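Workshop exercise sheet. Pairs work together: one partner reads the sequence aloud, the other fills in the structure field after running the prediction. Swap roles for the next sheet.
Pair: D.N. / O.F.
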Amino acid sequence: MTSKKLSIENLTFQATKIDVSNHILTITLNRPEKKNALNNVMMNEINYALAYAKQERGIRVVIIAAEGDVFCAGADLNRKQEESNVPRLEGSDDISLSIRHLYKPVICKIQGSVHAGALLMVTNCTHAIAVQSAKFSAPEILRGVWPHMVMAGLFRVMPKRVGLDFCMRGQAIDANKAQEWGLINESVTSEALDDTVAKLAKDLASLAPGTMQFGLEAYVNQDNMNFDEALPYLGKKSAETFAGPDAKEGISAFLEKREPKWD
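Structure field:
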């Protein structure tokens, strides 16, 4: 990943829309005529926006949303590409890794169905809120292939047997089942989606940003450890957190009976 200072000024995002306000960066998939299928331009723009969000201390939360009736249909099998002046970042090809290593809250705002490789975004975000009408599927087996990469995120949020059946049969599940199986946090009416996600993002953005980032990094790191390794690692991180500026401000605010002021 480049160490050069990133900017979103004077860039033309062709396959996405980018908005920053109130410490929240929103990436909106914007190929509704193609069911927001992921082509190289869209993937690069998402990765660039995520790298920018990681760089900017003032950005505390990321929302991934979409235009149209489908959230994302997975990879675009049509190789014809659009033009974009968004720089390509070396080593940032995989959106799921960019999300996982952002170490900031990322909310998938799911206004329509999610298929195939799009599940990588949903399973690696910290939160996923979907409309009740949304469907979720890993249909690869129906085409004679297998959702190999999807499994990396899928089995970190879904029970193994139901996740395996989900991959083996390729059949869509509804939002209620997706919530029951841990694929999403909550299913809501289409009318409630905007307010639900906005409140969640506002709540997360109001919390200690440094500690949030530090804690999410520790979460990702310990996820790959066995228990005997994780416990001492997390003990060390806990001590570092208590010595940090967010904890000092948070504890002082509690003792002084005031709201904390985060930098």
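Discussion prompt: The first helix runs from residue 40 to 55. What would you look at next?
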